[in-house]
C-alpha cells in the first residue's frame, strides 16, 4: 500500500489551478478533487431555496454532477456560502479524508494548503492578474453559450477575490511554504511543467 502524498493547490478563480491540478494528478497517477465543486454544489442548492448549512451537511456525490455548477450565478453563490463557518466545517472532514487516501491525492481550492491540509507534502499557489483571469473566464462562458461581456466578468472576478481574501474564516492566501506560480504570461504546458517540476523535487 502506497503512503499518502498530498498536493495542495490553491488560488483565485480562473488562475488555472483546476487545469494544472488535473494535469499533475494524471502525470503522477494521483486522485484529484476540485474542492470548489463542493461549495458550488452547496451554492446551487441554496439558489434552489435550501438552507446552505443543511445543504452542506447533507451533500451527496450526485450533487457534484449537476451540469449547472459551472455557471457564473452558481460561482457567485459558492463564494457567498464559502464565508459561512458552519458550511466550511461540514465539508472539512470529507476533504481531509480524500487528501490522505492511499496512493496520494491532488486537491485544488482556496484554503487547502492553509487550512484543509497544512501538512501537505507539496503546496502550490496558482495566481494571475484579475484582467487575465476575467478574459479566460469570459472565453469559458462564451464557449458554453452564456451571453456576457468582459466588464461584467471582471467585476465578478474582483468581487469574488474580495470576498475570498477578506472573509474571516480561512481567507484566500498562499501558505507560507507554498510555491507561487503566476500564470498571467504562461501557456498551459509551461505552467504544468513548472508544477510537475516542483512536485517531482519532493516526490522523487
What key phrases describe this protein's structure?
alpha/beta; Rossmann fold; 204 residues; five-stranded parallel beta sheet; 9 helices
How does this structure look, described?
This protein has one domain: P-loop containing nucleotide triphosphate hydrolases (Rossmann fold, 3-Layer(aba) Sandwich), CATH 3.40.50.300. Helix content is 52%, strand content 12%. Helix 2 packs across helix 4. The protein has a five-stranded parallel sheet with strand order 2-3-1-4-5, with helices on both faces. With 204 residues, it is α/β, with parallel strands linked by helices. The protein starts with 5 loop residues before the first strand and ends with a helix.
In short:
The chain is of the alpha/beta class. 52% of the residues lie in helices and 12% in strands.
Structural class: alpha/beta
Give the percentage of residues in beta strands: 5-15%
Could you report the average pLDDT, rounded to the nearest whole number? 92
Query: Strands of the largest sheet, in order across it?
Result: 2-3-1-4-5
**How many separate domains?**
1
> Judging by the overall fold, what is the CATH architecture?
3-Layer(aba) Sandwich
CATH superfamily: P-loop containing nucleotide triphosphate hydrolases
According to DSSP, the number of beta strands is 5
Element pattern in H and E:
EHEHHHHEHEHHEH
Amino acid at each position: 500500500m502506497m503512503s499518502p502524498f498530498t498536493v495542495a493547490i490553491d488560488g483565485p478563480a480562473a488562475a488555472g489551478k483546476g487545469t494544472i491540478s488535473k494535469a499533475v494528478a494524471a502525470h503522477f497517477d494521483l486522485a484529484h478533487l476540485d474542492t470548489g465543486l463542493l461549495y458550488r454544489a452547496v451554492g446551487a442548492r441554496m439558489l434552489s431555496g435550501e438552507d446552505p448549512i443543511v445543504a452542506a451537511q447533507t451533500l451527496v456525490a450526485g450533487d457534484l454532477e449537476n451540469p449547472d455548477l459551472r455557471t457564473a450565478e452558481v460561482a457567485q453563490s459558492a463564494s457567498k456560502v464559502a464565508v459561512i463557518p458552519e458550511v466550511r466545517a461540514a465539508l472539512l472532514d470529507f476533504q481531509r479524508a480524500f487528501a490522505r487516501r492511499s496512493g496520494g491525492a491532488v486537491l485544488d481550492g482556496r484554503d487547502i494548503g492553509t487550512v484543509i491540509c497544512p501538512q501537505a507534502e507539496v503546496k502550490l499557489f496558482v495566481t494571475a492578474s484579475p484582467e487575465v483571469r476575467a478574459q479566460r473566464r469570459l472565453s469559458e462562458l462564451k464557449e458554453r453559450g452564456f451571453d456576457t461581456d468582459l466588464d461584467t466578468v471582471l467585476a465578478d472576478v474582483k468581487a469574488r477575490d474580495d470576498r475570498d481574501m477578506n472573509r474571516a474564516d480561512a481567507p484566500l492566501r498562499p501558505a507560507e511554504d507554498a510555491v507561487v506560480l503566476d500564470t498571467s504570461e504562461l501557456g498551459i504546458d509551461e505552467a504544468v511543467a513548472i508544477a510537475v517540476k516542483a512536485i517531482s523535487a519532493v516526490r522523487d
